[in-house]
Amino acid sequence: MRGPLFYSKILLFGEYGIIKDSKGLSIPYNFYKGALKIDEHKTTATHNSNDALRRFTEYLEALQERRPDLVTFDFDKLKKDVANGLYFDSSIPQGYGVGSSGALVAAIYDQYAFDKITVLENLTREKLLRLKEVFGEMESFFHGKSSGLDPLNSYLSLPILINSQDHIEPAGIPSQTESGKGAVFLLDSGQTGETAPMVQIFMENMKQEGFRSMLKEQFVKHTDACVEDFLKGDVKSLFGNIKQLSKVVLDNFKPMIPKEFHTLWKKGIDTNAYYLKLCGSGGGGYMLGFTEDFEKAQHALKGHKLEVVYSF
């Protein structure tokens, strides 16, 4: 058995903000991918993944008992496959903010859910929200609390525009310019980050009046503007807003930025060579960079590993 491929994702805009109803924009990133496979020889290399799937199956049984109206699974088939050495063969780095658990959740739903909503049918708003809810419940096994967006992106393999928590839709994004000098890129921090502790810090901060108003008046405002600029293809306005967003994140989300990158983050803002923002929950993994001149950014970030994900 070899299941279909599910891709990683990149949340271009909206990390943390979407918890508070900012806009968000998430795109599939086909460089990393994963598929369910069965390892008949049960080698040590696949043991951890198989073990995680066994625990995930138990979690899904409890979920089905709790919410039979939401989703049901073919547990006979799933348990049999797990016993036979089912594992998730994936190149998606874990703890890097590019949706490793999201791709796994999408693959399990695709393979084992009864009455599943498929990509081929007419995806109404109700169906999208239903999928998002199912995926949110499933992915909570990995993160403690999940919006369900990562698995949704991976499952549909389409850019998704988040207008608010209960209004999401597939989005058309401007096509890339191959010869363009500008780029969105990933900057590797060289360390993994964990989602749950970062979200916890954010939730603690949310108890403070000052943090809440900063989020609404600055963070959400600039995030929404970035999403609109990006979809319209208004590059000039986009970079103005990204610079503001990058500043707000540096000032208010320091724990989410690995310490040794604080200076590099500020250097981008001061020189305008590039602007950095969080990719996912932060704390490690990738950071997302935006630049109008990729060569210039490469030079300024010499010695760091960069991967282009979108060209302007």
Radius of gyration using CA atoms only: 20 Å
Total helices: the number is 10
C-alpha end-to-end distance:
40 Å
* Helix amount: 40-55%
Low-pLDDT residue intervals, each spanning 5 or more residues: none
H and E order? EEHHEHHHEEEHHHHEEHE
Q: What oligomeric arrangement do these chains adopt?
A: single chain
According to DSSP, the number of beta strands is 9
Determine the structural class based on helices, strands and strand pairing. Answer: alpha+beta
Major β-sheet annotation: 5 strands, antiparallel
% residues in beta strands: 15-25%
Shape: globular
Q: What's the pLDDT, averaged over the residues?
A: 92
Describe the protein's architecture and organization:
- By secondary structure, the chain is α+β, with helices and mostly antiparallel strands.
- 46% of the residues lie in helices and 19% in strands.
- The strands form 2 sheets. Strands 1, 2, 3, 4 and 5 form a 5-stranded antiparallel sheet that branches.
- Strand 4 and strand 5 form a beta hairpin.
- It is globular, with a radius of gyration of 20 Å.
